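[SOLVED] Need 3D model of a two-part complex

Original post:
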Amino acid sequence: MGKRIIVDPITRIEGHLRIEVEVEKGKVVDAWCSGQMFRGIEMMLQGRDPRDAHHFVQRSCGVCTYVHALASVRAVEQACNIEIPENARIIRNLLHGSQFQHDHIVHFYHLHALDWVDIVSALSADPAKTAKLSENVSGRPQNSAYFSEIQTRLKTFVNSGQLGPFNNAYWGHSAYNLPAEANLMASAHYIEGLKLQAKAARMHAIFGGKNPHPQSLVVGGITSVRDLTPERIDEYTQIWKETKAFVDEVYLPDLLAIASFYKEWGAIGGNNDAYLAYGEFPQKKVDDDLLLPGGVVDASLAYAAVNTDKIAEDVTRAWYEKGEAKHPLSGETKPIAGEVFYNTDDKYSWIKAPRYAGKSAEVGPLARVLVAYAKGHDHVKKLVDHTLKTLDVGKGALFSTLGRTAARAIETVVISDAMEGWIETLKSNIASGNKKTYQPWTMPDKGQGGGLNDVPRGALGHWIDIKGGKIKNYQYVVPSTWNFGPRDSKKQKGPVEKSLVGTPVADPSKPIEVLRTVHSFDPCLACAVHVIDPHTNQTYEVKVI
Amino acid sequence: MDNNNITVLGVGNILYTDDGVGIRVVEKLEKEYEFSENIDIIDGGVLGVNLLGVISNAGRLIVVDTVLNHAQPGDLHRLDHDQIPNRILAKNSLHQVDLIEALTLCNALDHVPQTTIIGIEPKDIETLNEHLTPEIGARLDDLVQNVLEEVLRLGGSFQPRA
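Solution:
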């Protein structure tokens, strides 16, 4: 038996995730992924008014508040047969599009980059050489005075001892491949990304009525009617433009530049089983003609449409009462009574194990990009081919940690570009007097609906069963449940568990390679599970057994 | 960023009993008072690092939150700027760590707002429930008063809504 390494908790994420891997001869041979917090929002929703559900579910997560609200109103709209007006659809797309722009930039620079970029090495870079590098790779080259100023700022930051998220990193680890100059360039963009992040959040405020926690969504449409003026739309457009420019000129070029030093990661961290996307951004009707199509693909890129009847959640290895795998519409959330025990041979997680047609499926940017690619989506295909060519790697490199991280940048470009058309249509609708944003409706006595959307972290589905005008049952299956779920009754691993197998680990006491793959999935377990634990986990712990 | 701007930021999760107390304070402030132009009242939820925009735009920041300080439930706490990093080094709660990280990241943006945390020792932050416990609910008005005093001290003004 190999050496067991436990990383608990994984940092730079929302929520509490524990990863255990078994390492033999410098490689991961087995992996267990555990969500350490219980989520029970579903139980809280029973008996409530379906129109209130989205207010509750959007509080179940710290980051993706809007996307849960969107899935929830869509579920109720399907259950009640409501078709929302075009303007409401567009504004929802614009809110959701800005969520993608914001989230993916934050993920790449602020949650994931430090796995690849060594900030301490950046301190020894030559600013003049960094400027030259920036001329070669960036669509927004910067001069040596700029990089020199960034370097001074980083030094002050590091010397202050208040490292914040830079704490507990593995600076100087042999797995860092970037030259000092590339580290400095990326660190500079880390800081620019922070500034942009602060601004991009304002896009949500414009049509959201409020930010954080947009309040403009209602079952039947949207309520931010007073903001449908040319001035407010222009305000949105300005921030969108600035964000899009950053994506085109900085994010994608940085991704390509950094990836070119980490090509071996095109063969690590893949899953090669099934990739699932519900698709997102309705161009016409809500469940029709999506910008990013839904579908299921395997490693040969064979495409099939999604049939949600094939979704079931297995609880064999999670801390719930025994029972057969169930579809979310009839799903149950019954935590086992009493104390729970972490046992990798039995139950070891609060996350259920969702399966599609009996298989574990990866969701997220890579799944969406693969599905779009398999369907021959023009824009996606162009960007994917360009990325593969620039890095001089084959299609097989897509099924990896590198592919997953690249897919996130690629879809940010595709979505950012599409937002322009939505803005234009909205403007012309308003100008021509079409200001309808809400479809009146009445609550039926009975109804069932599924609200599907594909959100920054992957396929998100909310299912509602209405009886007597109240919520009889409500279940949601979130992206992190798909990706971070445990084994099932057939002992099949979840996607992250599977992806970790084969990962090299140079130094078991500093498993940065494990973090790279885990972070590439953009874990956010605050919604998969949630609670605050006041007295434990005061430090970041890597245990080598 | 305007140095005279005062941001009152409530944080926490309203679905976890007393964890939502910061948000309840903010709701009460908005409902019962009218504030001068330079004051923003924000419901920050548990957005953590994603609140960077809100935080970095504040001249002065008042955070309202639960604070675990080994005291009796309902005890009020006040932490001033220079006490914050040291006092909350331990991982008191997931969102608080993120909030502190966000404050730290402000260094990289060249502006860390002068911050005061007005907090309360919670009784229950684990049960899934949208209501505060009676003990904490009973201190809501005191918390609101503490925030108002802080606003006055920093040069803001307000009046009760008619």
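Edit: The domain at 3-543 of chain A is CATH 1.10.645.10 (Cytochrome-c3 Hydrogenase; chain B).
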